[in-house]
């Protein structure tokens, strides 16, 4: 990039010296080749992300079309059996276990994350914040495969000892969901805390001035005022849970099963994609195409959730900024 | 200067030798001040002189500032607000506050008024609450503007209306004193005038202390005036306190005179 | 107490009732405060449990059975022997032909001390793990362990083992957990990250500059911005699928290295994984970069323009140097994300068993998280020990990266 700068300056020097023969200087517009090249490169960088999205849509779309030539969309969306060996391609078992693990995760992450956000934003002293916030940040930085290990080696034995060895499968959705919930707490708490901190101080003072306690101020004034930001955090959290792969791949099981029992093994959408693509897979097989149909479903779900979330955040900002 | 007064019957709030610190910094130096019952007392002075700090110390709003500490006494019904066994929540219910920028809650107009009574253990029926809301809005001269849109958000009102909503909200918890921290600084002249008229009305029922940076407002709309100034250590001090008419026409302290004449040109 | 609204009956509690009302509200407040605090501390507990569970598997007793008792090999402990003595041990306990084969492969004189030591272990001692214990058991139930070893494995030796060690870091993958290491995975991760940064940094910073300094507020640029925000929320496994189709299959002639004369058979190479990771971390890098650039005060730009600088000169000499600490911090955070990502690597096709060091961008490779995933999935308890050890290696890498980010942030935020 350094070269480009000097090119830009050189070209200018040449143009000015040419003009010096006729006039002492010129205020006319000069074309700066170097600047244009750089701007072109920067534009390319910005536009590259568009290609990524287009790439995702084309890749998922075209492979899915190949899949849906052989399997009808209706079957894909309504069949409760996913078993490529016998040509059964119903996404419901995968979708169900994705939703089950995500729901369990949300039961942990949403209340805990929100309560932590309230504590950090409304109660914590500067000292307490300086200790607790980094802990949550570290928790957010732990790779998901490590959480997978934690689910399989800690949460599953714990569940077995609480609910009985025989009642809990070694691979089960509850374990994966609970640990996923722990993983998502920092996301919920940091986004919710942002929402709560953005509520103007004046509103808190207004409540205190009427004789409200700290709790009443937090719950009845600050929380309602920041609610759209908090819901946005919740929606992003759901999207994270739906898209999470490694925890479920390690701990939830490797067989698509249509079951509502969280203590049974059942493969999720992401877990299935990881397992199938991890094996030696022929690019021409319907198995290969099928994971793209699952991927497309997953992509549309998370995209929808993220768009809802951002709309909520924007509405929240419009009120206070 | 104020004469030493111990008779609290005449005075709603008696401030004795108050010092306020932010961490190690002394923001207020030895202020003593008696606020008369059912009168409007204006706190004036150049910016940074600590008038807002004094006001916020009168209902323990300074508790909410990290590192803030108040020394001395503020007597209210012969009880020191800063005694160990005094509950700040109870204090703030009895001594209400209206802030510089209108800060209605993002709730309906009705709920803005009902909020205070509800959290403070209101024991009435729905229709009694309706009555209370109406009464407070009437007292704040807002009823006619909003009676048809009580369910609409308080944020939908104009700035002046919002401020009157905040006053109505403060009245709903039946305070004895209303502290106003530059309540008109964010308002246009017409809204300001309305608030001043409202203060004159409310004076019959409530004791009012108001901080203002606008000397004309103090001269127009107050019974007593306290003039504050920063000393050499940047701590706020009370320079002169007396009936508004006296202080503006016949200031005893040279500094007060300078300030008043300087401002009035 | 005088109520000033004497004309109307007050619905608010007065006197004693008021005091009771406040006391009960205070109690409620205290209870909820405790609940909120507990929720916050829950994170700390979860983190401690996680670390405890990892540490618990990293150290502990191991019952090992040797083909030859190490004590009979020499009168000194094995690890105190020098190389010549080790060679003598080797010579004395192997068949002549076998020893000669080794000598032909690489003369003993050319092998390092530790290589010879490893040979002694591998060819003479032939250790076999019979049973392993966790740190907690080793600590609190030593007596029970002793008893169990005495009754079940009378031939075995009980050793306290740290599964993580220098040899764990420096030996390649092996199917025997006692001898397995993360060397290949570590190198694979480092190669991948290096190439990822090489691509992602200029493009990420470039895009951030474009969006903050050049892009006007029009429809086109708004779409780009929205698109980047959307991409940041796409699950990582989707990036893996994109990488599989584009980099592994479509661009196979490039990513397999065939165009550069380094054919590795197919596109499942380091460079394919790096490009996938680049797409994954670009949105994060761009968003962080934009924030850093936005934080540079406008006055600085105006001062530069006022001296007749062009737009790019202003950016290069004034905006970027001031935004750089923020950009670096953002980059480090993005890298930490890439180091720990597993799902896209699985889909792109990182190998799970590979023993040769990666020798360039077109090599087949494995990576630390892949290794952890693979070992965690094995049911045998020995693999839990090495999975935990690999986790320690990964976490230490991430923590050091984050420490660098924190130092950078503090150093530069003080200066600003």
From TrEMBL, chain B:
Location of the ABC transporter domain: 13-260
Function: Part of the ABC transporter complex PstSACB involved in phosphate import. Responsible for energy coupling to the transport system.
Lineage: Bacteria, Bacillati, Chloroflexota, Chloroflexia, Herpetosiphonales
GO molecular function annotation: ATP binding; ATP hydrolysis activity; phosphate transmembrane transporter activity
Stated name of the protein: Phosphate ABC transporter ATP-binding protein
Principal subcellular localization: membrane
Lineage top rank: taxon: Bacteria
InterPro entries hit by this protein: AAA+_ATPase, ABC_transporter-like_ATP-bd, ABC_transporter-like_CS, P-loop_NTPase, PstB-like
Residue ranges that the Swiss-Prot or TrEMBL entry lists as coiled coil: none
UniProt xrefs under Pfam families: ABC_tran (PF00005)
UniProtKB/TrEMBL annotation, chain C:
Keyword Transmembrane tagged: yes
Cell compartments where the protein resides: Cell membrane
ABC transmembrane type-1 domain segment(s): 186-405
Transmembrane segments: 30-52, 185-211, 231-248, 269-287, 383-408
Membrane topology annotation: Multi-pass membrane protein
GO cellular component, one term: plasma membrane
GO biological process: phosphate ion transmembrane transport
MF term (GO), any: phosphate transmembrane transporter activity
Record-stated family: Belongs to the binding-protein-dependent transport system permease family. CysTW subfamily.
Entry protein name: Phosphate transport system permease protein PstA
Originating organism: Herpetosiphon geysericola
